[in-house]
Amino acid sequence: MARGRPREHQPDVLLDHARALWVEHGATGVTMRALSARAGAANGVIYNAFGSRDNLLARVWVREAVAFLRYQRDLVEAAVRADGPQEGIAVAALSLATYARTNPEASRLLLAVDATDLLTGNVGPDERNEVERLRLELGELITRLAEQLWQRTDRRAVALVRICVVDLPAKLLLSADRLDSTLAHHALREAVRGITSAAPPA
To answer: Where do the HTH tetR-type domain residues begin and end (predicted)?
Structure first.
């Protein structure tokens, strides 16, 4: 009987180790050699699985973003139905903080990484398409919230919601390691409510 792939060689296990390296040491700490040492898998196994370091980084981000965006979308849709689009934006802003209760490493990685940076290296077409698709998915959510709140999808309206959903959480929650701070969560929620209380100038 043919033996299956050793567990430590399975792509999801390798991605778990790569995510941990990224959170602990930043993107520069995620090398094929470091992953090989951490996972106990030969360099050749890792290159066969991912092709390049840039593909590895993209695959880590894509896996975490897929799971998080599904979680965020479900939370936001429920909040909009129950309390309206302004609350939906506040929930979207706080969603990485609530996600961190069960997925702390993924939340820290997603807060710290700008997806556009992943596309500057030697990324394969499949990985590039996945990163772009997920960026578009987040953009569609932001645009939909702007339309629901102000009946506008112009550049300024969308940019203001993006500030609430993307920029403010990164500044308030990550820069001083406040991902689990209830005070930071309160500040973020109230800041978003204040910002979205009036439509941006046309």
So the answer is: 8-68
